[in-house]
Amino acid sequence: MEFQEKGIDFAKDLSIGAMIEVPAAAASCSLLAAELDFLSIGSNDLAQYANAADRQNNHVSYLYQPINPGVVRLISWSVAAAKKLRKPVFLCGEMASDAKYLPLLLGLGLTQVSVRPSVVADIRTKIENTSVKNSRLLVERFMNSGDSNVLEELLAD
Question: How buried is 153 (Cβ within 10 angstroms: 0-12 exposed, 13-18 middle, 19+ buried)?
């Protein structure tokens, strides 16, 4: 409204979204998705803040675990909130660019990822060769167990 009041031209149909990079944003996704056009989950920062571990600090970087059950639940909440309100949601960061995580991401309901250009072909191939149905079962097994070792074993298959 401020631009309109000042007579400043702007794209009125510009999509506005939020980066979900901290646990509080993931926990508030229902509220955010209701007000925005899309959500983007930043896997690097979300995992770092959820694990309270700076991935660049050698003393605590071992605590940085993108498949920690808490991180996976935060991603799951974010995806579910966006889908419930029919808002686009995608994931960026290292998880998106690592093909081994794709069954997890597909099983959580993600249909869009933002990846490094150098891995596009590998990611596309992995997506084409991954069963969404089996991925959903993988996620259900993981969520019921809460054990990241189970997920590591399942993703290694």
Answer: exposed
